[in-house]
Amino acid sequence: MSSVTVTEASNGSELLLSTSPHLHSRWTTKQVMWFVVLALLPCVISAVVFFGFYQLLVIAVAVIFAVGTEAFIQYLLKKPIAVMDGSAVITGLLLGLIVPPHFSLTFTALGSVFGVAIGKMVFGGLGYNIFNPALVGRAFLQAAFPVAITTWTMPSYAVDTVSSATPLAALKFDGVATAVSPLIIGNVGGSLGETSALAVLLGGGFLLVTGVANWRIPAAMVVGVFLFGGALWLLDPAAPSPVFHLFAGSFLFGAMFMATDMVTSPVTGKGMWVYGLGISLMLVVIRVYGGLPEGVMYAILFMNAFVPLINRYTQPGIFGEAKA
Amino acid sequence: MKKQLTLFNEYKKGIWDQNPVFKMLLGLCPVLAVTVSAMNGIAMALATTFVLTFSSFIISLIRKLVPTQVRIASYILIIATFVTVVDLVMRAQFPALSKELGPYIPLIVVNCLILGRQEAFSSKNNPLRSVVDALGMGTGFLIALASLGGIREILGSRTLLGLQVLPDMFEPWLVMILPAGAFLTLGVMLGFLNYLTLRNKRKTDEAQLAHHPELPIIDTSIRQG
Fold first, then answer.
1. Inter-chain contact A148–B171, Cβ cutoff 8 Å?
2. CA-to-CA distance for B104 and B41, rounded, in angstroms?
């Protein structure tokens, strides 16, 4: 058991949340959060390289509004202002990286405010939220501005941009499959931070090696995609192959940065496997049978809702107790 | 025996203290389903108030004649009669509105606000008091539906009662006229109203405490948690 979650309670004392056996983590919340920020930098760079400097503005707006909202609400509720723990910075960065290129700054700000206010602060702030705040913000934007958020442009170094379908939409609506190699490099249409598998793996790998993100969740998701996506592919070769599932859309980004969010993922090792497999199952079902081309966001939000239940049923037995 | 309220207070309680939507969370099906615009909300609330007032009056009149075992069935029959009246009148006079509200007009029959008031109030009080109570509840319902519908209409389609209130620059939030928008708006409104109520309560508590220094100090900040 290496999954010890350390959260700093609002009064400054440390509150430990984990199942036994208890091993003290060498990380504080602040360190964990700033490590994630660091790990997201390759994605920020890839976003700027592929989609231009405007994207830096989008990400900056998302971060500023996320941090601002959190500070404002904490001020209103007369709670200690704890924005320096970096969690709001992560929410902003994540949201900035999962919107389409050339997305309106107003909408981005709105998504940030909504994600932090409704997705996090109404539940009581860091550590109490059920759903990943960045995904809540993205889901709100998807529901509020369905056209703007599905307008994709091809990566371009020129000033004028060409709108294009994402590889997943191309496959779903036009039956055109995209080769895997551009997906790995990231030279395809898609949300800012998720197009380049290379950048995501770089940042995600850093998180896994340092132990900030638990390896079980991404591992379970990859296994799940091969299991469920592979089964469907074997039954019907027209369905996307598991390798395509793996590299297309926001699967890797979601697996590395969204699903591994300590607050909204299970605390037990067994639970993490259940959670990751569940996300993959939902994802494959949405991608293959659903009306939407992409399902990572809804799959993770869906499984977020089950985390308390998963935690309850994967509680390890008390040492010395007879097995049921 | 509880002290009887004055008639005015009987009316007033439905608006705030026992507001059917904001305090009792009753009749949420129409509240969430039809409030895509302020007009729909107002029409729904007026229809509900009509049914509530008349059925409260009739049920209060016959409250001593109906055996307890069959009271629910009798109440539903009376309510259904008035709902049919509303439905037919709306279809004849306001066909467009009737079409927009769709099945939610006939569904007033099973609105728990209406049956709830009959059970809790009309079956125990005289006709005058029952009508006043029904009108109060109806007013509270109207305020809730109109404000909810108004907010959703402004944000979801830039208009209020069909008139454009926000500039074209403002991109309408489609989510507000979807079911999810109803839940979001209601949740945020409830949270805000509860916050106001708690704050007022704390203020009066503190004021009372200042007058009675002998009372034990209760830390109300815990409730705010």
1. yes
2. 11
Residue B124 inside a domain? The answer is yes
CATH number for position A147: 1.10.3430
A324: in domain: no
- Determine whether the interchain pair A145/B184 forms a contact, defined as Cβ–Cβ distance below 8 Å: no
Task: Give the predicted TM-score (pTM) of the model.
Answer: 0.79
Q: How far apart are CA A106 and CA B205, in angstroms?
A: 43
Question: Quick one: closest CA in A to B171, which residue?
Answer: A145
Say if A228 is an interface residue toward chain B (CB within 8 Å): no
Question: Which domain, by its residues, includes A210?
Answer: 5-313
Q: Which of B174, B176, B183, B190 to mutate to test the interface with A (most CBs of A within 10 A)?
A: B174
Can you give the pLDDT of all 324 residues of chain A as single tens digits? 344 454 444 455 555 556 655 666 677 878 888 888 888 888 888 888 877 788 888 999 999 999 999 999 888 888 888 878 888 899 999 898 888 887 888 899 999 999 999 888 888 888 888 899 999 999 898 888 887 777 776 665 444 444 555 666 666 665 555 666 666 666 566 676 666 778 888 888 888 888 888 889 999 999 998 898 888 888 887 777 888 888 777 888 888 888 888 888 888 888 899 999 999 999 888 888 877 777 888 899 999 999 999 988 887 776 666 655
- The residue of B175, B186, B224 whose CB has the most chain A CBs within 10 angstroms, and thus the best one to mutate to test that interface, is B175
Q: Is residue A134 part of a domain?
A: yes
Packing angle, helices A87-97 and A29-51, rounded to 10: 20
Asked whether residue B182 is assigned to any structural domain, the reply reads no
Contact A107 B171 (CB under 8 A): yes
In tens, the pLDDT along A120-137 reads: 888 888 888 889 999 999
Give the H or E element holding residue B39: helix B38-61
Using CA atoms, how far apart are residues A109 and A117, in angstroms rounded to an integer? Answer: 12
> What ipTM goes with this model?
0.73
Among the partner residues B174, B188, B225, nearest to A144 by beta-carbon distance: B174
Q: Count structural domains, chain A.
A: 1
Examine residue A70 and state whether it is found in any structural domain, yes or no: yes
Number of domains in chain B: 1
B36 vs A90: CA distance, rounded Å: 35
CB contact under 8 A, B174 and A140: no
Question: A107 and chain B: CB distance < 8 Å anywhere?
Answer: yes
User: Which residue in A141, A145, A117 sits closest to A131, CA to CA?
Assistant: A117
In a domain, A319, yes or no: no
Asked whether residue B29 is assigned to any structural domain, the reply reads yes
Rounded Cα distance between A268 and A311, Å, is 7
- Residues in chain B closer than 8 A to A104 (CB atoms): 171
Q: What are phi and psi of B7, to 5 degrees?
A: -60, -40
CB-nearest to B174 from A104, A124, A143 is: A143
Residue B145's domain comprises 7-162
Please report whether residue B198 resides in a domain: no
